[in-house]
Amino acid sequence: MKNGGVMKRFVFLIIVLCTGVISLAFADTITVDWLVDSSIYSTSTCTVGNNLTLPSAPTKRGHHFVGWKTFPYVFLEYIESTSTQYIDTDYIFTTNNGVLDIEFAKIGSNSSDNQGCGSYSLEDLRCFGIWFNKSTPYIQVGRNNLPLPTAMNNGEVHHLIVSVNNGQADVILDGSTVINTPYTGTIVNGKPWYLFAMNHHGNVYRPSSLQIHTVKLYEKDTLVRNLIPVKRTTDQVIGMYDTVSDTFFENAGTGTFIAGPEL
User: Fold this and answer.
1) Which percentage of the chain shows pLDDT scores above 70?
2) Cα 145 from Cα 139, distance rounded (Å)
């Protein structure tokens, strides 16, 4: 409605159906989890060969439920790059207020002095990401390199949370605060955020050899990307599925990602 009325936009709510795994060859039941916004909404048990009873339709203010759908991916523990693959998350930070929450492991030896994930503008040093050189990993925020106080050995899985908010940087590594310091500059650089490489003016910069388990990006406390390693069942393509935008992000580089164990 216009002319003084209120115009309300309805957005389709896409719901994911995830089928449980049958652990015994002759099991006669399966368990099905019904997911809404990536959280379990309902759980059902079904006898093999019989119809499954659907749960009640979920409701969400401002949204219209259009039905359940099968999730066309297999979850993986991680995906691994060999320094020629990368993911363009298609997200550009617009404020100097963001969070990177990532679980990862370095793989192999660095082929160059630096490797990384993130977005980067060399001319004015507007950066947000992680850098690994041959001796010390760094967090890059704005115009600053913030060295992590610990070495990262190949194959070690680490959980890193980098929070930046208008000149203040806080970094938590494996549950402990390791950096708490002011920084200069901004993370706003007009470049989409890359995984397994830095995005420098739309160019792949410092590609990395990494295993990535999960990645979350926030802006102003809003979750904007929740990336999960998956393999698409229709063609076995390996990539990252984003639960926020319901988007499958494929390899934007060359070669093929290595799939971790299926979950």
Assistant:
1) 86
2) 6
